Amino acid sequence: MDTTSALMNAELANLAAAAKAWPFEQARLVVERLKKRPKDGPVIFETGYGPSGLPHIGTFGEVARTSMVRFAFRALTEDKIPTRLVAFSDDMDGLRKVPDNVPNKEKLQAALGLPLTSVPDPFEQYPSFAHHNNAMLRRFLDGFGFEYEFLSSTEQYKSGAFDATLLKMLDRYDAIMAIMLPTLGEDRRATYSPFLPISPKTGKVLQVPTLARNFERGTIVFQDEDGEKIETPVTGGHVKIQWKPDWALRWTALGVDYEMAGKDLIDSVQQSSKICRALGGNPPEGFNYELFLDEKGEKISKSKGNGISVDEWLRYAAPESLSLYNFQKPKTAKKLYFDVIPKAVDEYISFVDAFRDQAPAERLENPVWHVHSGKPPREASPISFALLLNLVSASHASNKEQLWQFIAKYAPGVSAETHPFLDRLCGYALAYYEDFVAPTKKFRPPTDKERAAFLDLIAAFEKIPADCTDGETIQFQVYEVGKAHGFDPLRDWFRALYEVLFGQEQGPRFGSFAAIFGVRETIALIRKALG
Description:
The chain is of the alpha/beta class. The chain has helices spanning 10-18, 22-36, 57-76, 105-109, 129-143, 153-159, 163-171, 173-180, 186-191, 243-254, 266-278, 310-316, 319-327, 341-355, 360-363, 367-371, 385-395, 400-410, 420-437, 448-462, 471-484, 491-501, 510-517, 519-530; strands at 43-49, 83-89, 149-152, 195-197, 212-214, 219-223, 229-233, 239-241, 256-258, 261-262, 288-289, 292-293, 334-335.
């Protein structure tokens, strides 16, 4: 998702300054931030990932959206200010529960409380569960071409990168406690400490009180699980910081300028921001996006494995459509399940088609400008995903070659070589139809009124040249037959076409379908349904 610096010029910056698309609104916050507090190093955009479960689309979405804000910032500043996108994995956190969607659960059960980088990999492929999940995260981020830097919490703690800020946290322990204690229940307040020591005996991340502090030595005293009191340094990976103070630690130590978060973390953002200020840091800009929901309207959870995984989306649709779905209305809760895929794909195609004829200022409002970092393709597909699904249904195609036989007649000169996106779309349509459309089809016989209309439609189609590929001409005849038979509203006529011919309540423009499937082939399809 990179672009050339040649795109970043004063003209683009002027257009971006007035653009209303949300990535520009967010990027302008970072620009204003730098006016108030300039910095010497690069502007840091950060995303966080908790590898206690397998990565899901919410994880991808945060990186995709943050990348869009980062690119908008580069456009606003003519790419004159260096930036970094950090994908941070909180992999030193202790394993609190066993995810539902992993094998060998007994291995994880025995490792509860250990840092995720010390938990055995249930898939038996990597040194730890965190290494496995981190590798999955990096694999699909790399697959999408994101420009990012991966940072491991464990490595940051153990390398000493956080040491200076950890000592500052020890020095300002009372200020941090004053921020956190009012947010906790009575029982939690009695034992709370921002420092979670790593037991030198069991290796577990311990939720225990801090009994004493020694700033000169940079240590705390805690009671281990066997009752022994132990003095341990807060530096060098001997402790892990509690979640909200840990977020503030990261922001302060790394100098993070921008990080968005889910709506469920609003309180965490507020408390972490207070702690960041107590540490002398400047909390990052950002916003709280709405969460994705599964088919039941429940929050998607990486431990439950509900909703769609990135790999599942990519089995049925192009990655560009996934980026588009994340771009649209980030502050509105949206269902993220398999039935949203066809619409997302066709909206992507429509936005690419519209981009060609838009003025420069309009293009900055078009989602594909943000999906493709300012360089969307000139064309996506001359055929919609919905239309391809119906073509698969009507033709009983089982491979892309069969679909291309129809496409070649409909659009001479269009081929897999000239339109690789359409070729990929054919493969997606075959997979999606097999898994989601075919099992749900419910054909019904036509009513007497509909049967009469179908017969007249056959008669009308027989007058159309067999090689006609003009969808509008065919659609006109469909309209005329529907009106002649008194369908009011006319959508009842089209619903009858879809239910009788395709076994579903809705579908693409029927004239477009008949144009690509073939007029004579459509007549045969209708006769078969009537028979």
